[in-house]
Q: What sequence folds into this?
C-alpha cells in the first residue's frame, strides 16, 4: 500500500466514438501527499478535466472506458468502488470538486441556503436546523460578508467572486479533505482571482486539506502549489516542485506555456514554433514531436522520465543531451 | 482638450444611465450610472486598452460608442462625424468602418450557419458583392487569420475556441473597417491560443492599418497590446495615458491594486499579495466623493466629500485622485 494520500498509477482512459478509439489519458504516476497543493497545467484539451472527473468517477462509461490503472485514495482504490459507495462515502464527504463556471454549477432557482442545506442533510444526515448552522459556519469560513443575508440570496444576486466562494463553501461543508479545483478562477477579474486563490491557500493550511489545482496559466499554480505536473495530450511530460519546474522549465512545452503569457509590449511572445495542434502523433517516441521546434531524429525513439534535479523529472530526449533552453 | 488632428475617434463627456423603474408609467426611481462622464481620444493606428473590474462599465462604454446603446448625454465623433446625429442610413454606412469582436466566440457565431455564411454576411449587407465572388473572398479572409480554406464549409462547433475567435476576427475584418473594438477577445481561451490570437491581431493591425480599442480585465494582455490605457472604476476614468508610463509607474491607488493582483513569478507566496478590501460598490448607490475612497488605503477626509477630477500629472498621464494632486 502506498503512503501517499492520492496515488494515481498507470491510468489509461479512452473514449470511443464512431471513428474508433481515442486515447485521452495515459498517466504513469501522480502522487499527492496529505495537506499539499498539487498543480496540473496544460492547454485546453489535454485531459486535465477528464482526470478530475475520473477521480470522482463521474465520466460516463461508455463512451469513456478505463483501460487500466489504479486511483488509490486514502489506501483504497477508487476505481474498484461501486456507484453506491462512491455516492455515499466519497463524493462530497471525502472528495469535493470546484468547477470552472460558478454560474452554471449553482442552481439558479434555489437560494444559496436551500442548496447548501440540501447537500448537508443528504451527506451528513443532520436535521435542517443543524444543517443551517453548519451552512452559516462554512459561509463565514470562506469570508463571505454577512453570511446570514447571503444564505437567503439567489445565485444571480451574487457577483462572480461571491458565487465562487459559495461553491468553495459547498465543497467544504461536508468535511471533504481533498478538493479538486478545476480552473476555479477562469473568467474572474484579476483582483477577485487573487482573493479566491488566497482563500484556497489559507484553507489548505488551516483545515489541512489537500488541493488538486487545475489551470492553464502556470503563474497561478506557482502562487499556491507545492508540486506541479505538466500535462500534454494526456501524458505527464514534466513534474517536480513548483519552484523547480516553473522557474527552470526543461521541456520545450512547459517553456512555451510560460512564455505564452504576454509580459512586455516590446518583447514578442516566443512560442518556439508552437503553432499547429491536433496533428497525428508518432507511435513510439516523444508525444510532442510534431509541435516541437527542437525535434531531432532521436526524438522518434521511445523515452522515459529523466531526472533533472531532486524530484524534478522530464520526458524529453534532448534534456539527456544537455541544457536545451539555453 | 486635444485638437482633432489625426484623432480617429473622440469621446466627449459621454454619459449612459440606465433608469430603474418600479412600474411602467412611473418616473424612474434611480439610475445605474454605468458610464459617467468619460472623455477619450484615439489616434489613427493606435491601440487603446480599457481596464477595470467587471461591472465598472467597460462594455457599456464601448456599446455606447458603437451606438448599440443610445447615450444619455455626450458626443462621439468618428472621422469628423458625430455618430449620434447621423440618420439611420448614414449610421449604417458608417458602421462599415467600425467592427467589434465579442468576448465568447461560442455565443457570437450562429451555430446553424456555415463559416462561409457567417463571414460573408457583413459583405452581403454592406456591399454589392456578387455571389460568385463571395466564396473567394471568404477563403482569402480565412487564410488571413490562419485557418485552412476548407473551413468555409464547416460549422462553428467543429472548431476549438481559439479557432472560433479567429472566425470572429475574419468576420470583423471582412469589410476592411478602420476601427475594431475587441471586447475581452481572449478571456475564454487558454494561454497558448491567447498568445497566438494576440500576435495575429498585432500582425493584422500592421497590414491593414487598423485602430483597436481593446477591453480586458487581464492586465498582461492590455500591457502587451496597448499604446494608451484608460483605467475605469464605477463608470469613471481614474487614470488615463501612455501605456508604457502607466505600466512602469502607476499613479492611482486603484491602478496600483490592479497591478498587485496580476499573477507573477516574483512573489512565491500568495499570502504576500496585497489585496483591496471589500467589493466594488453598487453603481446605483454610489459612494460620496471619490468613488474609490471606501477601498482606498490612502483615503483622506477630502476624498469622502469631493469628487476628484482627471488632472495631468508630472509624468504626462492623467489621474483622478486628491491624494496625488496635493503631493
A:
Amino acid at each position: 500500500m502506498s503512503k501517499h494520500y492520492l496515488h494515481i498509477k498507470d491510468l489509461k482512459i479512452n473514449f470511443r466514438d464512431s471513428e474508433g478509439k481515442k486515447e485521452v489519458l495515459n498517466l504513469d504516476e501522480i502522487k499527492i501527499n496529505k495537506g499539499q497543493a498539487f498543480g496540473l497545467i496544460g492547454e485546453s484539451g489535454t485531459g486535465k478535466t477528464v482526470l478530475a472527473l475520473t477521480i470522482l468517477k463521474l465520466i460516463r462509461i461508455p463512451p469513456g472506458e478505463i483501460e487500466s490503472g489504479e486511483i488509490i485514495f486514502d489506501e483504497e482504490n477508487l476505481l474498484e468502488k461501486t456507484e453506491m459507495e462512491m455516492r455515499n462515502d466519497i463524493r462530497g464527504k471525502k472528495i469535493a470538486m470546484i468547477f470552472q463556471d460558478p454560474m452554471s454549477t449553482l442552481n439558479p432557482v434555489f437560494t444559496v441556503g436551500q442548496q447548501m442545506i440540501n447537500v448537508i442533510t443528504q451527506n451528513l444526515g443532520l436535521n435542517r436546523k443543524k444543517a443551517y448552522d453548519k451552512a452559516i459556519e462554512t459561509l463565514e469560513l470562506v469570508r463571505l460578508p454577512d453570511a446570514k443575508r447571503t444564505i437567503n440570496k439567489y445565485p444571480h444576486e451574487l457577483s462572480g467572486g461571491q458565487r465562487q466562494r459559495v461553491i468553495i463553501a459547498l465543497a467544504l461543508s461536508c468535511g471533504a479533505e481533498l478538493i479538486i479545483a478545476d480552473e476555479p478562477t477562469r473568467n474572474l477579474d484579476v483582483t477577485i482571482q487573487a482573493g479566491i486563490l488566497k482563500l484556497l491557500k489559507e484553507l489548505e493550511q488551516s483545515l489541512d486539506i489537500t488541493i488538486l489545482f487545475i489551470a492553464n496559466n502556470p503563474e497561478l499554480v506557482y502562487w499556491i502549489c507545492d508540486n506541479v505536473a505538466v500535462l500534454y495530450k494526456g501524458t505527464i511530460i514534466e513534474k517536480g516542485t513548483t519552484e523547480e519546474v516553473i522557474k527552470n522549465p526543461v521541456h520545450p512545452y512547459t517553456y512555451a506555456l510560460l512564455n505564452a503569457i504576454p509580459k512586455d509590449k516590446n518583447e514578442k511572445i516566443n512560442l518556439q514554433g508552437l503553432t499547429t495542434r491536433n496533428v497525428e502523433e508518432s507511435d513510439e517516441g516523444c508525444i510532442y514531436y510534431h509541435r516541437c521546434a527542437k525535434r531531432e531524429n532521436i526524438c522518434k525513439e521511445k523515452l522515459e522520465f529523466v531526472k533533472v534535479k531532486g524530484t524534478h523529472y522530464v520526458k524529453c530526449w534532448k534534456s539527456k543531451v544537455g541544457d536545451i533552453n539555453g | 482638450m486635444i485638437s482633432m488632428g489625426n484623432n480617429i475617434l473622440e469621446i466627449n463627456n459621454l454619459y449612459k444611465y440606465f433608469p430603474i423603474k418600479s412600474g411602467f408609467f412611473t418616473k424612474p426611481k434611480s439610475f445605474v450610472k454605468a458610464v459617467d462622464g468619460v472623455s477619450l481620444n484615439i489616434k489613427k493606428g493606435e491601440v487603446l486598452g480599457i481596464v477595470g473590474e467587471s461591472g465598472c462599465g467597460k462594455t457599456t462604454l464601448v456599446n455606447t460608442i458603437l451606438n448599440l446603446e443610445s447615450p444619455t448625454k455626450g458626443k462621439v465623433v468618428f472621422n469628423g462625424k458625430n455618430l449620434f446625429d447621423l440618420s439611420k442610413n448614414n449610421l449604417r454606412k458608417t458602421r462599415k468602418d467600425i467592427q467589434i469582436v465579442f468576448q465568447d466566440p461560442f455565443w457570437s457565431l450562429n451555430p446553424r450557419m456555415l463559416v462561409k455564411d457567417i463571414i460573408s454576411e457583413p459583405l452581403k449587407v454592406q456591399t454589392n458583392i456578387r455571389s460568385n465572388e463571395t466564396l473567394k473572398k471568404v477563403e482569402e479572409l480565412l487564410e488571413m487569420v490562419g485557418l485552412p480554406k476548407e473551413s468555409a464549409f464547416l460549422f462553428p462547433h467543429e472548431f476549438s475556441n481559439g479557432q472560433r475567435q479567429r472566425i470572429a476576427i475574419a468576420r470583423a475584418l471582412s469589410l476592411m473597417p478602420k476601427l475594431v473594438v475587441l471586447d475581452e477577445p481572449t478571456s475564454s481561451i487558454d494561454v497558448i491560443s491567447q498568445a497566438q490570437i494576440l500576435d495575429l491581431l498585432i500582425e493584422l493591425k500592421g497590414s491593414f492599418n487598423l485602430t483597436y480599442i481593446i477591453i480586458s480585465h487581464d492586465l498582461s494582455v492590455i500591457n502587451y497590446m496597448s499604446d494608451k490605457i484608460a483605467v475605469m472604476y464605477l463608470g469613471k476614468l481614474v487614470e488615463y495615458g501612455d501605456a508604457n508610463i502607466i505600466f512602469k509607474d502607476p499613479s492611482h491607488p486603484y491602478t496600483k491594486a490592479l497591478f498587485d493582483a496580476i499573477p507573477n513569478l516574483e512573489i512565491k507566496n500568495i499570502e504576500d499579495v496585497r489585496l483591496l478590501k471589500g467589493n466594488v460598490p453598487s453603481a446605483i448607490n454610489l459612494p460620496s466623493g471619490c468613488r474609490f475612497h471606501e477601498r482606498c488605503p490612502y483615503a483622506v477626509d477630502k476624498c469622502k466629500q469631493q469628487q476628484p477630477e482627471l488632472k495631468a500629472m508630472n509624468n504626462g498621464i492623467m489621474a483622478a485622485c486628491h491624494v496625488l494632486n496635493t503631493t
Summary: The first strand of chain A starts at residue 6 and ends at 17. The CA atoms of residues 36 and 210 of chain A lie 5 Å apart. Residues 248-321 of chain A form one domain. The radius of gyration of chain A is 21 Å.
